[in-house]
Write a structure and sequence with these properties.
With 308 residues, the protein is an all-alpha fold. The protein is 80% helix and 0% strand.
């Protein structure tokens, strides 16, 4: 082999080794790039998984905190509701107790009122019987005195001087003096104003007016009428117990007054309004017995017929 051929073969073998080295280097670089990409991808995945886990943990903590707040609010609400229910039940019990007490007081007042009326009625009947007995005894005494006068030939009792008016001369017509117009007194003025209020339907104001008149003028001739119209005002207001008491003032304090029959009748009707037929019948019978010729007696008879 020639020398130049040996040198050529050596050159060829050097270039082959160099190519292989370059190819190997390229492959190494490629492998390193792939490794770097894989490492970077793994790091990114790891980092993203860490971030995701942190978010999940944060959200989980928030949910737990919210659950705790909801639980505390529910507990507080339950406590308030239970407390409110207890307070409400206590208030209801107190109201029911007050209603029971009021009912008891009303029943007691009705019993006392009924007893007072019955007692007053019994007292008045006893007084009338006593007056009748005294009248009979007086008649007997007058008859006895007259007999004694005749037996002893004593002159009869002469009337007091001035007791009889001097008779006018015969034949001369008597001209009556002109009627004097009396000025209206203060009690009459108050009474008339209160009556006007009653007629206008102002019953509470009428009651106040009559009471003021009675307080200022308790001995007025219109006192019995004022008590009667107080009762009528209470009847219009449907305050029947108060009306019964007002009528009782007329019956008890003015037994000779002209308003007694009406007061008895209206009192009986007031008892009917509060469902007390026993007292009502008693009063209606009393109207018929003590005032048989009055228009109130006629009304009482008709009313009794409806109650049988």
């Amino acid at each position: 082999m020639r020398p130049y051929e040996k040198g050529f073969e050596k050159g060829q073998s050097r270039r082959g080794a160099t190519g292989r080295l370059m190819l190997y280097g390229e492959r190494c670089k490629e492998a390193m790039r792939q490794a770097c990409v894989f490492v970077l991808t793994g790091m990114l995945v790891f980092l993203s998984s860490c971030v995701y886990d942190n978010d999940i943990a944060y959200l989980n903590d928030q949910v737990i905190a919210l659950n705790r707040r909801v639980k505390s609010l529910e507990d507080a609400l339950d406590t308030k509701v239970r407390s409110g229910q207890v307070n409400l039940r206590t208030d209801i019990d107190e109201v029911q107790e007050q209603v029971r007490r009021l009912n008891g007081r009303i029943e007691e007042n009705e019993r006392l009122l009924k007893r007072a009326v019955e007692r007053d009625l019994g007292d008045q009947d006893a007084m009338r019987a006593e007056v009748g007995s005294i009248s009979e005894r007086m008649a007997v005494l007058e008859s006895t005195v007259e007999q004694h006068h005749r037996f002893l030939n004593l002159p009869p009792v002469q009337p007091k001087a001035g007791a009889e008016a001097e008779a006018p001369p015969a034949g001369k017509p008597v001209t009556p003096p002109p009627a004097a117009v009396e000025p209206k007194t203060k009690d009459v003025d108050l009474y008339d104003k209160s009556i006007a209020l009653y007629r206008d339907g102002k019953y509470e104001e009428a009651i106040a007016g009559f009471r003021s008149m009675l307080k200022a003028y308790p001995k007025s001739d219109r006192a019995d009428n004022a008590h009667f119209w107080i009762g009528e005002s209470y009847m219009a207001l449907k305050q029947y117990e108060q009306a019964i008491l007002a009528y009782q003032e007329v019956i008890k304090n003015y037994p000779k007054g002209n308003k007694v029959p009406s007061a008895l009748l209206r009192q009986a009707l007031a008892f009917l309004e509060i469902k007390d037929q026993t007292s009502a019948k008693l009063l209606l019978n009393r109207v018929i017995k003590n005032h048989p010729s009055s228009s109130e007696a006629t009304i009482a008879k008709k009313k009794l017929e409806t109650l049988k």
